[in-house]
Amino acid sequence: MPHNNGKSRTRRSWAEPYKIKMVEPIKMTTREHREQAIAEAGFNTFLLRSDDVYIDLLTDSGTNAMSDNQWAGMLLGDEAYAGSRNFDHLQDTITKYYGYQHTIPTHQGRGAEHILSMLTIRDGDSIPGNMYFTTTRMHQELAGGQFVDVIIDEAHDPTSQHPFKGNIDLDKLQSVIDEVGVVHIPYLCMHATVNMAGGQPISMANIRAASKMCHDQNIPVFLDATRAVENAYFIKTREDGFENTSVADILKEICSHTDGCTMSGKKDCLVNIGGFLALNDAELADRARNECVIYEGLHTYGGMAGRDMEAMARGIEESVSFDHQHARIGQVIYLGERLLEAGVPIVEPIGGHGIFLDARRFLPHLAQELLPAQALAAALYVDSGVRGMERGVVSAGRDPETGENRESRLELVRLTLPRRVYTQAHMDVTAESVIDLYEKRNHIRGLAFSYEPDHLRFFRARFTPIGGKQILDDALYSSLPDAVSDTANA
Ligand code: F0G
């Protein structure tokens, strides 16, 4: 892959540290087909059928390609109801790489968030964190708490070049503590990397300082470790003093500053399903096991099959390899640099798990009430069959107290890269479609809600375009050649 940051004069490409031994055909569709499909999906890319999608960049969650070694492990699944040997392997692997003593397996990340929230949050508590994540905040609120954003201001500015936009603003953190009092803060919720800010990392210096600040005041720190290995890669490549430390050692140090983590294994751990809550406190872990048996499954499987736990243990081992992370994040950088060269507004610096199109600057003719990011995601799908996801005012949802839309300074479309799934040619097709669309951006219509669910509305909401039936102004579009499609199925 020709990505060298422009640093060396002789261009030396690098390539993925694997080769492909099995393929899954994908369907190519016509623009007409896609127009109908997105209309049937209420202009929400979550409601499209996967069969109607050409390049699926909806999420990097559970969409990873497993290695031959992981698939081999699947055949060694010990499907005993209790005490599966794969659980022991998983727990030992978590202790080895993440350092935590106790593992409570869950069906996925939000299962772990549910258990942690129920055990630690009381009515009226405040939970400071470096930007919200949708399911994490939902569980905090359902447990009676309130999330308070203490991320640095730069995180809310897509143009800021700060290398660690996931950092916690220590003054904001101390102000929250002073304002509500230590007893009303069950823990600091620390994300590594910050998904909603654009996959932006937190620095080791900041992790050390924020954790110390909390621990000095007897406030526990829980990590959302969903993409912590990617964060470790950024620390190695961006933070002074870590050039010669391995990704694995950096990961271990990140975790050592925290009291436990919630984990969606569907990302860094290179599997399709699963998660865990990992803790150091034996008593809290015991209470978590009691919740696990109610909501997830016995405490030695927590909603995962034995084979899933084996695949996850092997995936964790593979995930800490520098070459793996270099190729994974290198692919994201490749796509991002192609877009930047063409002047497309994206969140910078380029983050870990995807490219985030800045819909505010992409579609300046659409006010935020017209849901520009939702509209852009729908338009991109119509143009080329590439599926992205809205991460703006629709995802931010409504304030449960006031019922008003929450303010969202970021209005983004996320193009998320599954790990080890797509090739550089897929990135080229994606970049060309986005660039084409940028040139025709004035012809993208705004959207209005036609159905709005009460919780996590972005998943199942439906929309209608304003001023016409389709998201793209037909008159202009029908005169242009189709990006990818019309070749197959024609
Ligand atoms: N924390 C973070 C930072 C996440 O990105 C996710 C999921 C979760 C927790 C919840 O984990 O899905 O396994 O229950 N993110 C997915 C995404 C949905 O597309 O970003 P889960």
3D architecture notes:
The protein is α/β, with parallel strands linked by helices. The protein folds into two domains: 31-60 and 323-489, Aspartate Aminotransferase, domain 1 (Alpha-Beta Complex); 68-321, Aspartate Aminotransferase, domain 2 (3-Layer(aba) Sandwich). Helices cover 39% and strands 12% of the residues. α4 (109-120) packs across α10 (282-295). The protein starts with 30 loop residues before the first helix and ends in a 13-residue tail after the last helix. The structure holds ligand F0G. Ligand F0G binds next to α4 and α5. Ligand F0G is lined by residues 59, 61, 108-110, 133, 135-136, 191, 195, 224, 226, 264, 266, 275.
Give a quick rundown of the structure:
Helices cover 39% and strands 12% of the residues. It has 490 residues and is α/β, with parallel strands linked by helices.
Molecules bound to protein: ligand F0G
Query: Strand pairing plus helix content: what structural class?
Result: alpha/beta
Instruction: Tell me the CATH topology of the largest domain.
Output: Aspartate Aminotransferase, domain 2
Rg, alpha carbons: 22 Å
CATH class of the largest domain: Alpha Beta
Distance between the termini: 32 Å
Low-confidence stretches: 2-6, 479-490
How many distinct beta strands?
A: 14
Largest sheet descriptor = 5 strands, mixed
- Give the name of the CATH architecture of the largest domain: 3-Layer(aba) Sandwich
* Annotated CATH homologous superfamily of the largest domain: Type I PLP-dependent aspartate aminotransferase-like (Major domain)
Strand content of the residues, in percent? 5-15%
Q: Strand arrangement, largest sheet?
A: 2-8-7-6-5
Number of helices in the DSSP assignment = 18
Number of domains: 2
Q: Mean pLDDT across all residues, rounded?
A: 94
3D shape: globular
